[in-house]
Design a protein that fits this description.
The protein is about 40% helix and about 15% strand. About 55% of the residues are buried.
């Protein structure tokens, strides 16, 4: 496997080279990071398997951290783990992070550290009567990572408002159920569950469409009207302030992981299949990595689309004036939106 990575490019992308004045106080050795299911978390998988966080920490004079990875499903579970002190760095879709940012402004002051991947999320169904979301009825069940708060749940609300009119964004919420992407995929493909639709992410959504009778109802890119990031990585103000060099090493590791994925899509696909013990073929995963709709970058895209919707519908009391309001200063030098 070709694991040669350009450290200086990664350091520049993370802002390390431009931050010579950081204090050299002792930082925490233990680093617990939440990861969820799917290709949208591939940079974290690469960072874990190639030990990039440990490498970048050593490069800036830190002792090698003890990194542990917690597999969770959905922004609600991830937020609970962060708030209870069981995580240092959480990962979830944009809407759950916006919600926690707003709720924690007077205490933990949660902000984002970086983005992971921009990718479309698809709503698939096996119900032949459903051509658009207007066709869903009381007999349908739509699986997603967390009802009402996950990225998929918010996009479904945005689509419902577009289909049914102002004030109707929650119209399809009673049809949603909480399931992890692997379990929802098994239910949809198996055909024996009450779940007959799934709002997922790659590779699960793509895997589902390989089966007869399952088709796509909508794409989040169509709902939003542009490309957008899916997942953000975030932490509390207290942890970030106490561990500034660890933050920079972490961002550098993500930049290095993204650069390696783009330069080595075949090897990245092999790594994913092996690390996740996936039954998908390497060719299938490589095609997803190479897909033009997917962008691997720590710079966020489309944050305001979701934050504005959450504020307008009363789910978040504070209006996000700029994407930078949601992020720690380490991310402000990038070309986010």
């Amino acid at each position: 496997m070709n694991t040669r990575l350009t450290r200086r490019g990664a350091l520049l992308g993370a802002g390390i080279v431009a931050a010579p004045g950081l204090a050299l106080a002792q930082e925490a050795r233990d680093l617990r990071i939440a990861v969820q299911f799917g290709i949208t978390y591939l940079p974290l998988t690469v960072a874990r398997e190639l030990r990039l966080i440990e490498r970048e920490a050593r490069a800036i004079g830190l002792p090698e951290p003890n990194v542990s990875w917690l597999q969770l499903s959905g922004g609600a579970a991830t937020n609970d783990a962060l708030l209870s002190g069981n995580l240092e760095i959480a990962s979830a879709g944009i809407p759950p992070v916006v919600l926690l940012w707003a709720r924690s402004r007077n205490n933990l002051k949660v902000h984002a550290l970086a983005s992971l991947v921009a990718a479309p999320l698809w709503l698939n169904t096996r119900n032949p009567a459903v051509q658009t979301i207007r066709d869903f009825g009381p007999q349908d069940r739509i699986a997603l990572p967390a009802v009402r708060v996950s990225f998929q749940a918010i996009v479904l609300q945005m689509a419902a408002e577009q289909a049914f009119g102002a004030g109707q964004h929650a119209r399809l919420d009673p049809l949603t159920v909480t399931l992890s992407h692997p379990d929802a995929t098994a239910a949809l493909i198996g055909g024996r569950s009450e779940v007959n639709a799934h709002f997922g992410n790659p590779p699960f959504q793509n895997q589902q469409l390989e089966h007869p009778g399952i088709r796509r109802v909508l794409s989040s890119y169509d709902v939003v009207g542009s490309r957008h990031s899916v997942t953000l990585l975030y932490a509390t103000q207290r942890w970030r302030d106490a561990n500034p060099r660890t933050v920079l090493a972490f961002r550098s590791a993500l930049s290095a992981a993204n650069a390696w994925i783009v330069a080595n899509p075949r090897e990245a696909a092999e790594l994913y299949v092996r690390a996740e013990r996936s039954n998908l073929s390497v060719d299938f995963v490589e095609a997803l990595i190479r897909h033009p709709d997917h962008r691997f970058s720590i710079e966020p895209e489309g944050v305001k689309h979701f934050a504005d919707f959450q504020h307008r519908t009363g789910q978040v009391p504070i209006r996000l004036e700029s994407w930078k309001d949601l992020f720690f200063p380490e991310a402000h030098g990038g070309a986010g939106t």
